[in-house]
Design goal:
The complex is a heterodimer. By secondary structure, chain A is mostly beta strands. Helices cover 0% and strands 54% of the residues of chain A. Chain B is mainly β. Chain B is built from no helices and eleven strands. In chain B, the strands form two sheets. In chain B, strands 2, 4, 5, 9, 10 and 11 form a six-stranded mixed β-sheet that branches. Chains A and B meet through strand 4, strand 5 and strand 10 of A and strand 5 and strand 9 of B.
Chain lengths: 115, 111
């Protein structure tokens, strides 16, 4: 009963390096989300997707790109990592809704440090 | 003004105490409300949805006051295992797809 799985769990990068975070869900959820969480800031939405092949910007999209080529996967890319991107990244998914009535299910996070 | 505001705490209470958290939201058109729980260095997990008439789940009671735009969570008979951060969540202003998370209220339950 995997739910939402994020890989990797931890990563240390040097400034300027690139990497991709993978989120996979096995609940057949239509919607998927990427958040970052920093101390005292709460969860901030980076990008989201309401279906396969579609993506949209959230609150803090700069420096990140995403792709949703398959319904079950949502990838978050950092093209040129910066120290300000040091954070804990959470992926979430949910069933479709029109009024925000469906809760989101989270992966257990990726802890990313940029040196 | 933040879309969802919470007192960060911490609330430090003894086992068995009753504790209440409030949360205010700015979008009067919001329709969906939740409380999530987040343990230290873990992912947020849904605690309960909040319904207009108020709802209860065991020791937890959630209330919604639309006129004043606030949501409350009451925890009765606190357990050590209730120690966590409680996140107030509301659907977003500019899109029904998005949920807005408060920064959380930290609860510490002591023996």
């Amino acid at each position: 009963n995997a739910g939402v799985t994020q890989t990797p769990k931890f990563r240390v990068l040097k400034t300027g390096q690139s990497m991709t975070l993978l989120c996979a869900q096995d609940m057949n959820h239509e919607y998927m989300y990427w958040y970052r969480q920093d101390p005292g800031m709460g969860l901030r939405l980076i990008h989201y997707s309401v279906g396969e092949g579609t993506t949209a910007k959230g609150e803090v999209p700069d420096g990140y790109n995403v792709s949703r080529l398959k319904k079950q996967n949502f990838l978050l890319g950092l093209e040129s990592a910066a120290p300000s991107q040091t954070s804990v990244y959470f992926c979430a998914s949910s069933y479709p809704f029109l009024d925000g009535s469906q809760p989101q299910h989270f992966g257990d996070g990726t802890r990313l440090s940029i040196l | 003004r933040k879309e969802v505001e919470q007192d960060p705490g911490p609330f430090n209470v003894p086992e068995g105490a009753t504790v209440a958290f409030n949360c205010t939201y700015s979008n009067s058109a919001s329709q969906s409300f939740f409380w999530y729980r987040q343990d230290c260095r873990k992912e947020p997990k849904l605690l309960m949805s909040v319904y207009s008439s108020g709802n209860e789940d065991g020791r937890f009671t959630a209330q919604l006051n639309r006129a004043s735009q606030y949501i409350s969570l009451l925890i009765r008979d606190s357990k050590l295992s209730d120690s966590a951060t409680y996140l107030c969540v509301v659907n977003g202003m500019d899109s029904s797809y998005k949920l807005i998370f408060g920064s959380g209220t930290r609860l510490l339950v002591r023996p």
